[in-house]
Structures
1.
Amino acid sequence: PMPAPDAGSETRPLTGAAAGQGGEPVHVPATRPQASSGVETRASVWGTVGRLYFTIPGKGDYICSGNVVTSNNRSVVATARHCGFGEGGTNYRFAPNYNKGNAPYGWWGWRSAGWVTGGGQENDNAFLVLDTPDGRHVQDVVGSTGLGFNWSSNYAHIIGLPADKDYAVWCEGQGYAGPGGQRLMDNCNGLSGGASGGAWIENYQSDGNAIQTGAYSGSYGAAAATSAYGNAAYDVWNGAQNA
């Protein structure tokens, strides 16, 4: 457990969606910040990924990572289910573009959440709906990473904020199917505790534009593992984006 800043109201959680397999590929495009001068055409994942704090009652305060993803309500952060969801997690607060204690866009509280139920590491997905302080929506402020559901295992990057570094780091490699239904990547060191919930992204571009196709779930043996977005994740995201 780590000390965490004040924030976060209580919430009413969304209904979880049971895990499912298969389905047609879906692509949800990225967005740029509303305040953009027009020079930037797309959001950078380095500005949308950030630090997630939360509390598990009776256990303490914890940290994970999250990423602002495209949604109708312009307020959704993708993360991992094991970041307190299903364990009574509360007091969630998120800082996009967080770096060593610096939160340039402030800390955002939450109002609801949804996650995939059932299964293990292969279904470790959750979506958090943030508050809108003073009418601001996080997607308008920093933009959003696009989403891909039911995508295959392509060359990918993982971006998260490990606690021992306290800033965003990444690794890259060829994704492949794991024996438990998760997606794996070899030769990915440094994404230790606190990086959970970070973004597994594909089609990464030099300007930071990318498509998130899963959430980083931790290690599986010597490999890095993610829970790829399938039908259940799509259902949860769809509920979150309209909450």
2.
Amino acid sequence: MSDRNFDGLRDVQLWRTFLAAYRHGSVSAAARALGVAQSSVTVHLQALEGIVGAPLFERHARGIRPTPGADELAGRIAGPLDALAEAVGARPDAPAAPVRLGGASEFLAAVGLPAVGPLVAGGMLLAVTTGLADDLLDRLRNGELDVVVSAVRPRGRTLPAMPLFDEEFALVASPQHGIRPSAELRASDLDEHPLLAYGHDLPILRRFWRHSFGIRLERKPALVAPDLRALAAAAVAGAGVTVLPTYLIAEELADGRLIELRPSDDPPINTVFLVRRPGPVAPAAALIERALREATTVL
């Protein structure tokens, strides 16, 4: 530290402010949590940066992003400071802020929110953001989210990520199309049936065609809907053939509203990751992660 006479205990309020800013990802949110003015938070952070002799946060349009030095510092002081706060009957960043969870809307609706529902009923605060994986990971890097369920692994080592589950994909259609399910089904057997796609570039369909048929899909889709639940509903209604993750259509497959056209012991899969902000994990965020892991063990 630049101040060699500073023993770290002269003003615990500076550390409280730092930890609140680190956990909340913005000066305004930290000020609300601490019950002080934003200017006070700014002054405290500037004073602490002067003490440690290095920047602790990078400012950007949507808040503040911790530096690697801040990650290390938070990891060292969070436990002792929380213990001190508990010993005197307070919390360093009370009142509690919501855990900010991000993920694909389909997964959160079908699996994620039912899994964490009991935690919310027990008093946890939760704010959910849906969107595409790359956008959510950017928001996680910017400190705007705490935990993200991502269909892609984050690049680099900035964001801690662990595999959550493997989603399996199935080629499905309504029985009314009269397509006979077979492990030997050929792509040409589907030429007369409309394709239902998640995007104009056919990201899921192309992957299935390449993995299962060994060819590149060149057809144009009859329906494009950027929501897998909408594609499932359209398929049940007889609109055409599509590829969907099996966890999302388990009921439709079980009751026969959809049939798997090309059953296989080697279906296309995609690993879904649980990604968190760098630094120490808040207890509430850890509970969210555990609930998601438990819910996905049966998928």
3.
Amino acid sequence: MTINNDLEKLIENLPFFLQEHLNQHTSKSQLIEIVLDLGRRPEARFVSGPEYLSQKIISWQDIDYMTKRVSKFSNENRAGIERTLHRISCIRNRQFLINGLTCRVGRAVFGTISIVRDLLESEKSILILGKPGVGKTTIIREIARVLADEMEKRVIIIDTSNEIAGDSDIPHSGIGRARRMQVAKTELQHQVMIEAVENHMPEVIIIDEIGTELEVLAARTIAEKGVQLVGTTHGNCLENLIKNPPLADLIGGIQYVTLSDDEAKRRGTQKSILERKAYPAFEVIIEINEQNSWTIHEEVQNSVDLLLRGNFFVSQIRQFSLAEKIRIKSKRFQNTQTSLIKNSTNLNESSTFAQRNWISINQLKDEKALKLKSKKLIIYSYSISSNLLKEVLLKMGFKFVLTNEIKKAEVIIGLKKHLKQNFKLITMAKQRNIPIYSLNQVSFYQLSKLIQFLSL
């Protein structure tokens, strides 16, 4: 996992007495935001907790110094620093003068979405739920880069507050080849969403913070046109969406239905019940419980239906660590009570799907692969994401080394259309008797198949 935060560019715009302290701070890499309030001591908020940066209190001159070195504040009282992802938000007094600043550190994290790579390849629309500050924007920024660069999709980002691609006319490199459409006013976001589909022929639309009925309607319209959506909204879990009328249409909408006496008796319910009224605009939901633990609903319509009936529904818990080990397990929920499913005979149709997906990702399909697992394979990858290749090999349990030197490699793996054009690479491989394996398309499935073939 690689992090690019351009922290120096934020620090150099702070008042001088803060710059020296932050540059020497041992936890500088764990910085979340800096708070500057008039008449108070400056405060830094780290992952471990808040901390005062100085005994000196913030003056009007300090606030003025900072505001003159960032971009112009928008109607939402937000500004940025050119060619970075940092966000500067202001607090104003009754005379509209700025008397407080919140400087949030923006980070482009590469490799954070390897845990849901298979969901991206499914081409289903994905909605990400989470509390403010949990990292939803960072996640969709990385999703945009992976879809555009590694999966070669036509991706357009609807960047309302310039948080995804930075506060500049030139988008930040963290979004890769994805294109960005800026939104002049927040209330026009739904119009820009529709304009993106009508004018620019995207395969994927990325939307941050869907919150109004008009934006929900625009998202449904885009989904019905066959465009893949990746969006975020505030909420802790799927139940929050069901209980939120403006956002409920994202998961198909909820309506009261009156049953006949016979039907109510057959179901064992009351005559008036809640039911989903349409197909969800988002087919997959990811709940960001913690930064390294996500809950996945791969069949949203099933989860919603079962939740409305008060029955058990199954979702996945995916966990990962800095050691790049990913664990997936199915859990069964009912009214916030959880119990781990230990016996496959108890799984309903949804859980069977979850278990089957876990097996396809994490278990070997061929026992002959054990031969390859016993030795360390030295691989030279060409035009293939190293993160994706590492993910496949780790999940299949192989020992490997990725090298940048062809002469040390035992095998070369690359994308066919790019390998054909590199005659020098092909010549060197022939001279050293290094086998070359090519892929027509870079995907988790194609790489898995290739690794299994190598083990035969």
